[in-house]
Design goal:
Number of strands: 6
Distance between the termini: 39 Å
Number of helices: 5
Order of helices and strands: HEEEEEHEHHH
Largest sheet: 6 strands, antiparallel
Low-confidence stretches: none
Oligomer: single chain
Protein backbone atom coordinates (compact mmCIF):
# COMPACT_ATOMS: atom_id res chain seq x y z
CA UNK A 1 0.00 0.00 0.00
CA UNK A 2 1.35 3.42 -1.00
CA UNK A 3 2.61 5.45 1.94
CA UNK A 4 1.13 8.94 2.15
CA UNK A 5 2.44 11.98 3.99
CA UNK A 6 -0.57 11.91 6.34
CA UNK A 7 -0.08 8.21 7.15
CA UNK A 8 3.67 8.61 7.73
CA UNK A 9 3.13 11.51 10.13
CA UNK A 10 0.35 9.62 11.93
CA UNK A 11 2.62 6.58 12.39
CA UNK A 12 5.63 8.51 13.70
CA UNK A 13 4.20 11.55 15.48
CA UNK A 14 3.38 9.99 18.89
CA UNK A 15 6.83 8.47 19.32
CA UNK A 16 8.64 11.52 17.98
CA UNK A 17 6.65 13.69 20.39
CA UNK A 18 7.81 11.43 23.23
CA UNK A 19 11.37 12.28 22.10
CA UNK A 20 10.44 15.99 22.45
CA UNK A 21 10.01 16.68 18.73
CA UNK A 22 7.24 19.05 17.66
CA UNK A 23 5.55 18.69 14.30
CA UNK A 24 5.97 21.72 12.04
CA UNK A 25 3.37 22.26 9.34
CA UNK A 26 5.61 22.73 6.35
CA UNK A 27 4.64 23.22 2.73
CA UNK A 28 7.92 24.69 1.56
CA UNK A 29 10.78 22.28 2.22
CA UNK A 30 9.65 19.31 0.15
CA UNK A 31 9.73 16.90 3.09
CA UNK A 32 6.75 14.64 3.77
CA UNK A 33 6.93 15.46 7.45
CA UNK A 34 8.95 17.88 9.53
CA UNK A 35 9.65 17.65 13.25
CA UNK A 36 11.81 20.03 15.28
CA UNK A 37 13.18 20.02 18.81
CA UNK A 38 15.07 22.61 20.77
CA UNK A 39 18.54 21.29 21.65
CA UNK A 40 19.52 24.25 23.84
CA UNK A 41 18.70 27.95 24.06
CA UNK A 42 20.20 28.71 20.63
CA UNK A 43 20.03 25.50 18.58
CA UNK A 44 17.30 23.43 16.94
CA UNK A 45 17.43 19.89 15.61
CA UNK A 46 15.10 19.23 12.69
CA UNK A 47 14.07 15.82 11.42
CA UNK A 48 12.71 15.84 7.88
CA UNK A 49 10.90 12.75 6.57
CA UNK A 50 11.09 11.70 2.94
CA UNK A 51 8.97 9.07 1.19
CA UNK A 52 10.94 7.21 -1.49
CA UNK A 53 9.86 8.16 -4.98
CA UNK A 54 10.20 4.66 -6.46
CA UNK A 55 9.22 2.32 -3.60
CA UNK A 56 5.62 2.74 -2.42
CA UNK A 57 6.13 2.31 1.32
CA UNK A 58 9.81 3.23 1.83
CA UNK A 59 10.85 6.33 3.76
CA UNK A 60 13.90 7.86 5.39
CA UNK A 61 14.80 10.86 7.51
CA UNK A 62 17.30 13.71 7.60
CA UNK A 63 18.74 15.50 10.62
CA UNK A 64 19.52 19.19 10.39
CA UNK A 65 21.18 21.19 13.17
CA UNK A 66 20.96 24.98 13.14
CA UNK A 67 20.17 28.13 15.06
CA UNK A 68 16.89 28.36 13.14
CA UNK A 69 14.18 26.00 11.96
CA UNK A 70 14.76 26.34 8.22
CA UNK A 71 15.75 22.79 7.32
CA UNK A 72 18.45 22.16 4.76
CA UNK A 73 20.10 25.58 4.54
CA UNK A 74 23.68 24.74 3.51
CA UNK A 75 24.70 27.64 1.30
CA UNK A 76 27.58 30.04 1.81
CA UNK A 77 29.52 29.35 5.00
CA UNK A 78 26.79 27.16 6.54
CA UNK A 79 28.47 23.81 7.27
CA UNK A 80 27.32 20.94 5.06
CA UNK A 81 27.83 18.64 8.06
CA UNK A 82 24.81 20.22 9.72
CA UNK A 83 22.63 18.12 7.39
CA UNK A 84 22.94 14.33 7.69
CA UNK A 85 20.94 11.14 7.29
CA UNK A 86 20.89 8.77 10.30
CA UNK A 87 22.56 5.95 8.34
CA UNK A 88 25.75 8.02 8.18
CA UNK A 89 25.82 8.05 11.99
CA UNK A 90 25.58 4.27 12.39
CA UNK A 91 28.55 1.95 12.64
CA UNK A 92 29.19 -0.54 9.86
CA UNK A 93 27.78 -3.34 12.03
CA UNK A 94 24.69 -1.31 12.93
CA UNK A 95 24.04 -0.55 9.23
CA UNK A 96 24.58 -4.15 8.12
CA UNK A 97 21.26 -5.36 9.59
CA UNK A 98 19.41 -3.25 7.01
CA UNK A 99 21.07 -4.75 3.93
CA UNK A 100 18.34 -7.31 3.41
CA UNK A 101 16.30 -6.06 0.49
CA UNK A 102 16.49 -4.33 -2.88
CA UNK A 103 16.23 -0.83 -1.39
CA UNK A 104 19.08 -0.99 1.13
CA UNK A 105 22.14 -2.21 -0.72
CA UNK A 106 25.21 -3.41 1.13
CA UNK A 107 27.65 -0.66 1.97
CA UNK A 108 25.09 2.13 1.56
CA UNK A 109 24.70 4.74 4.27
CA UNK A 110 21.35 5.81 2.88
CA UNK A 111 18.88 3.51 4.64
CA UNK A 112 15.11 3.35 4.05
CA UNK A 113 12.44 1.85 6.26
CA UNK A 114 9.04 0.32 5.42
CA UNK A 115 6.08 2.46 6.50
CA UNK A 116 3.73 -0.53 6.15
CA UNK A 117 5.70 -2.65 8.61
CA UNK A 118 5.41 -1.97 12.37
CA UNK A 119 8.81 -3.58 13.09
CA UNK A 120 10.48 -1.41 10.47
CA UNK A 121 8.89 1.72 11.93
CA UNK A 122 10.16 0.70 15.37
CA UNK A 123 13.62 0.18 13.87
CA UNK A 124 13.55 3.68 12.37
CA UNK A 125 12.63 5.21 15.72
CA UNK A 126 15.36 3.21 17.48
CA UNK A 127 17.87 4.47 14.93
CA UNK A 128 16.72 8.05 15.58
CA UNK A 129 17.16 7.49 19.33
CA UNK A 130 20.64 6.01 18.72
CA UNK A 131 21.95 8.51 16.20
CA UNK A 132 20.50 11.77 17.52
CA UNK A 133 22.96 11.98 20.46
CA UNK A 134 25.85 11.17 18.12
CA UNK A 135 24.79 13.99 15.84
CA UNK A 136 24.21 16.65 18.50
CA UNK A 137 27.33 15.77 20.52
CA UNK A 138 29.63 17.14 17.79
CA UNK A 139 31.14 20.18 19.50
CA UNK A 140 33.00 21.14 16.30
CA UNK A 141 29.71 21.26 14.40
CA UNK A 142 28.14 23.59 16.96
CA UNK A 143 31.21 25.84 16.69
CA UNK A 144 31.02 25.91 12.87
CA UNK A 145 27.32 26.82 12.99
CA UNK A 146 27.95 29.43 15.69
CA UNK A 147 30.58 31.12 13.51
CA UNK A 148 28.54 31.03 10.28
CA UNK A 149 27.71 34.52 8.98
CA UNK A 150 24.84 33.11 6.91
CA UNK A 151 23.26 31.49 9.99
CA UNK A 152 23.60 34.79 11.87
CA UNK A 153 21.73 36.56 9.05
CA UNK A 154 18.95 33.94 9.05
CA UNK A 155 18.67 34.09 12.84
CA UNK A 156 18.50 37.88 12.85
CA UNK A 157 15.75 37.84 10.21
CA UNK A 158 13.75 35.32 12.26
CA UNK A 159 14.13 37.44 15.43
CA UNK A 160 13.01 40.55 13.53
CA UNK A 161 9.87 38.82 12.25
CA UNK A 162 9.04 37.50 15.75
CA UNK A 163 9.52 41.02 17.12
CA UNK A 164 7.20 42.56 14.51
CA UNK A 165 4.50 40.02 15.31
CA UNK A 166 4.91 40.45 19.07
CA UNK A 167 4.96 44.28 19.06
CA UNK A 168 2.03 44.59 16.67
CA UNK A 169 0.06 41.97 18.59
CA UNK A 170 -0.77 40.18 15.36
CA UNK A 171 -2.69 36.99 16.03
CA UNK A 172 -3.45 34.00 13.89
CA UNK A 173 -1.68 31.48 11.74
CA UNK A 174 1.21 32.43 9.49
CA UNK A 175 2.55 30.94 6.29
CA UNK A 176 5.54 31.65 4.12
CA UNK A 177 4.86 32.31 0.45
CA UNK A 178 7.64 32.45 -2.11
CA UNK A 179 7.47 35.46 -4.36
CA UNK A 180 6.52 34.71 -7.95
CA UNK A 181 9.00 36.31 -10.31
Amino acid sequence: MRLSKAKLIKLLKPRLESLRYVEFKDSRSGFQGLFVKKVNTDFYLSLGLTIHRYYDSAFTGDFYLSKNTIIGATWGDIPGDSYKRPGFLLTKDERSIYYTDEINVEGSYNICWDGNNADSIDDFLKVIETTEPRFINQIDLFNKIEHSKEIAILSNHAKAVKNIIATNKIEGSYSFYLSKK
